[in-house]
Amino acid sequence: MPDLPLPLLIGVVVLDAYAIARVLLRHHGVSTTVAWILAIAALPVIGAALYFLLAVPHVRHAIRKRRLDAVGAEDYPTNSEGAVELGGQEGASAEIASLFRLTTRLTGMAPTKGNRVPLLTEDERAFERIEEVLAGARETVWAEYYIVKNDVTGRRFLGLLARCAARGVEVRFLYDGVGSLGLDPTLLRAIESAGGRTEVFFPLNPLRRRWSFNLRNHRKLIVVDGEFGFTGGMNIGDQYSGRSRLRGARHFRDTHLEVSGPAVADLARIFCEDWTYATGAQLPFTSPPAPASPGPEGSAVAVLPSGPDQRLNASGMVYFNGVASARERVYLTSPYFIPDEPLVRAMTAAALRGVDVRLLVPARSDVPIVAAAGRSNFLNLVRSGVRVFCYQPSMLHAKSLVVDGSWGLVGSANVDMRSFRLNFEISVVVAERGFARRLEGRFLGALESSEELDGVALAARGTFSRLRDEAARLLSPLL
User: Which of 58, 303, 324, 360 could covalently link to 346 via disulfide, CB atoms 3.0 to 4.6 Å apart?
Assistant: First the structure.
């Protein structure tokens, strides 16, 4: 360190000491903690500034904390309704009961029965169905998205929201400050002029309230009239709607869900919390009247919000639990695969004990550095018996998990550090064999257009390729 005036030197020492204390108290994990301490010590002031800018901040979310406290998240009562009741119903397994106890403790929301959760796997049909429901909205349309593109699909979607507002529907639209950076402000003003409300979640402008450089709202969520919900992996844009494929451009293969039944109230609750957090003005949650049950074939559903406001990340914990508890097979799909060490070990252990563990990733990623970081894990996984497949026809963007043909998960969370630590995400866990079989069928169908990675070929890669992938892996906490 160059010679500095004593007051300035004291200031640097105090700042770095404070940053190191914060690192030690935040429980980032041993390797991450040591890395940050070394960075702060090697780069006085700069290292501390980077830590405060990039490390996982402490996000307080008073509404969600009150909900967790209300259900006793630390000491879930085993005789209460919700997860245990579902686990005890006829035909339900002990594994499902355990799964739902986990989701309830993590999120504070008990699972619900009697839901319909059709898979929306064809891009064009998914957007047709969303537009159909929006066109029929009577009272409320609440929508939040990570990405809304300024293209045909994005402009059409925002125009539909404006038309809903113009006919007296309560429209609230929440978008991420980074993911939707290119939004045309005139389209947002059209919604406002028609009587709707729009708000940015985590703006980039440091002069705005609740701004963040590194945190993102990665959720994709629509709730209409408290009766219909949509969530999953699809953002709003031509790449997701199939319009880009029609003109021969790059498109995404994705998976989305339509939800009707009691679980829609949980989706609405998450939107209310996010709106209140983003705006500072409370949007009270009023549970809609209980809808008529779709019948005995209805699915048991747990809505799974996750984010940096949780002490234990719900997405990461449920993915880990799914792999670790699998007895026969577990199929995992992720476009951006940068797992943490516990999940790698769970996948390795599951494969070694004879579980059919399969991973599906894109052959060509739209984020090359993320793909490189993911490849650094493949050789050890394949050597342990995990089968890794690369989807060839298009960019794979679906995020899903299906376990033992018994339950499945579809949502917005990737299997990466960002989704498990930094992003606000939302997924839906469905415990119903028909749904799980459909999700397995979707996965196995994709394998027909995929290439399986071979351990010998992976081991024979050149030194430069391996160095590139390992270097990218070092950046995984930031990707």
Answer: 324
The residue segments making up the domain with residue 140 are 83-99+112-299
404 is catalytic: yes
Q: What is the pLDDT of residues 194-217, one digit of tens each?
A: 999 999 998 776 556 666 667 889
Same domain, 438 and 350: yes
What distance in Å separates the CA atoms of residue 330 and residue 327, rounded to the nearest whole number? 8
Query: Is 256 one of the annotated active-site residues of the chain?
Result: no
Do both 231 and 330 map to the same domain? no
The C-alpha atoms of residue 408 and residue 472 are separated, in whole angstroms, by: 31
pTM recorded for the entire structure = 0.85
- Note the pLDDT tens digit of each residue in 269-280: 999 999 998 888
Catalytic residue among 254, 274, 309, 404: 404
Which of 218, 256, 340, 469 is catalytic? The answer is 218
Measure the CA dihedral 165/166/167/171, to 10°: 0
**Is 218 known to be catalytic?**
yes
Please check whether residues 246 and 119 belong to one and the same domain: yes
Range name among 157-166, 213-222, 227-236, 356-365 with the lowest pLDDT average:
213-222
Decide if 220 is catalytic: yes
Note whether residue 472 is domain-resident. yes
Shared domain for 339 and 195, answered yes or no, is no
